[in-house]
């Protein structure tokens, strides 16, 4: 289960970065996280590195800490990312609806 949570977190981080970038470029959303907003405006590549790198960092930490602890800890960011992706899907589908109607 831990491996699937890690795969989900890395994929969700990448999807979040891509969809956030799209929403910001299209002026549909604003980045609510001040750190991410700063990175996006001043260090675009670092924005992607952080969004995708943090889940990868958790993966590296998983090898150093007992698996049972990490598995419990991974559930929290997985739930947060799931909520973020649901939020992204709402505004993204609204954008598609407005574009094609």
Number of helices: 4
- Sheet of most strands: none
What would the principal axes of the Cα set say about the shape? Answer: globular
Radius of gyration from CA coordinates = 15 Å
| Residue share in helix | over 70%
Structural class given helices, strands, pairing?
A: mainly alpha
Domain DUF5658: 7-93
Transmembrane segments: 43-61, 73-98
Keywords: Membrane, Transmembrane, Transmembrane helix
Protein name: DUF5658 domain-containing protein
Please provide a written account of the structure.
By secondary structure, the protein is mostly helical. The protein has one domain (about 1-100). About 85% of the residues lie in helices and about 0% in strands. The chain has helices spanning about 1-25, 35-40, 45-60, 65-100. The chain is globular, with a radius of gyration of 15 Å. The relative contact order is 0.18.
Summarize the topology.
Elements: H1 2-25, H2 34-42, H3 44-62, H4 67-100
Concise summary:
Keywords: Membrane, Transmembrane, Transmembrane helix. By secondary structure, the protein is an all-alpha fold. It has helices at 2-25, 34-42, 44-62, 67-100.
Features:
DUF5658 domain-containing protein; globular; DUF5658; mainly alpha; single chain
């Amino acid at each position: 289960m831990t491996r699937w949570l890690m795969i989900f977190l890395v994929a969700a981080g990448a999807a979040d970065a891509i969809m956030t970038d799209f929403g910001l470029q299209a002026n549909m959303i604003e980045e609510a996280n001040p750190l991410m907003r700063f990175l996006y405006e001043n260090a675009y590549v670092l924005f992607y590195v952080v969004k995708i790198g943090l889940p990868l960092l958790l993966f590296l930490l998983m090898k150093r800490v007992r698996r049972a602890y990490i598995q419990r800890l991974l559930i929290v960011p997985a739930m947060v990312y799931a909520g973020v992706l649901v939020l992204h899907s709402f505004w993204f589908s609204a954008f598609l609806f407005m574009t094609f109607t």
